[in-house]
Structures are given as structure tokens and as C-alpha cells.
Amino acid sequence: MKKIFFISVCLVFILFKSWANTLYTLEGKTISLDTLTAHRRTILFFWNTRCPYCQTEIKRLNKSLLFDKYTNIEFFYIDIGENARTINTYINAINLSKKIKDRIFLDRSGYIAQMYDVIGIPTYIFLKDGKIVYRTFYLDQKQIEEIFNE
User: Fold this and answer.
1) Exposure of 55 in the CB half-sphere (CA atoms within 13 A)
2) Tens digit of pLDDT for each residue in 25-51?
3) Domain 23-148: what homologous superfamily?
4) Whole-model pTM?
5) 12-40: buried (b, 16+ CB within 10 Å) or exposed (e) per residue?
6) Can you tell me the distance from the alpha carbon of 38 to that of 58, in angstroms, rounded to the nearest whole number?
7) What is the helix (H) or strand (E) element at residue 85, kind and residue range?
8) Cα separation values, 21 from 32, 58, 94, 110, 113, Å
9) Cβ atoms of residues 136 and 143 within 8 Å
10) Which of 15, 45, 88, 97 is the most exposed, fewest CB within 10 Å of its CB?
């Protein structure tokens, strides 16, 4: 009986861990967090459409050519706690570029944000080989070059 209970608990833990590490695209497809963070250099931008500071940042990033310069850095936009319809309505209203739209992922439960200790938004998390090396609320070219030695 104890073995069955132990196995059940282990299965629940494994299933929760795999579910919790899952992000969704705007089309409803799933992707694991490990897939996003497997790149050598990654920036995760945590945001939400209801956050006025996030709105300012996403519009600034949309106008900026900042990430066209850094082809060896992966940049992903992680929306916290919203559904695809809400996000699509917002990004269509501001005419968000396809380049950014294709890199938006949904953290429906907020678990991914919690894993990265995101306290406020907007938040940028810099990763090298999957490890956090820096976090900030504002992003500029100087930071990218200093942190990633570009």
C-alpha cells in the first residue's frame, strides 16, 4: 500500500512539473521552458497587457531595431496570466510586429514567473546557458553589450 501511495505521489509530482514548465503560443501550441532557455544567450521579457509600464516597453521594443543587431541572442516575451484572446486584441490594436508576435508565450498560471522570482513587471531576465546572470526593469543596448560581451 505504501508503494502504491509513493508511486502515485511521484507521478503527480512529475505531471505537475511538466505542466508547470509549459508555455503556450498565441495559437495554443505548447512549448517547454527548457526549449526557450536552451540557447546560449537568452533574454526573457515578463509582461502583461494591463500593466502601463509594460505597454510602454512593448511599444518601445516594437519601434526599436535593437534586436535585429543581436542575431546570437534569443529574445522571448512571456505574458503572465492572460489568455491568447486578450493578448491578440492588444497586440493588434498597437500593430505589433510579426517578429515580436511570433515570440510571445503565455505563462497562464504565473508559475514560470514565480520560478524566476519575478516580483514586478516589466522584468527582463538575462540568461547565459540557462542560468540567470542579470535582471532589470528597463533594457538598453549598453546593458546587452556589457552582460553578453557583445
Assistant:
1) 9
2) 999 898 888 888 888 999 999 999 999
3) Glutaredoxin (3.40.30.10)
4) 0.84
5) eeeeeeeeebbbbebeeeeeebeebbebe
6) 24
7) helix 84-93
8) 6, 24, 29, 10, 10
9) yes
10) 15
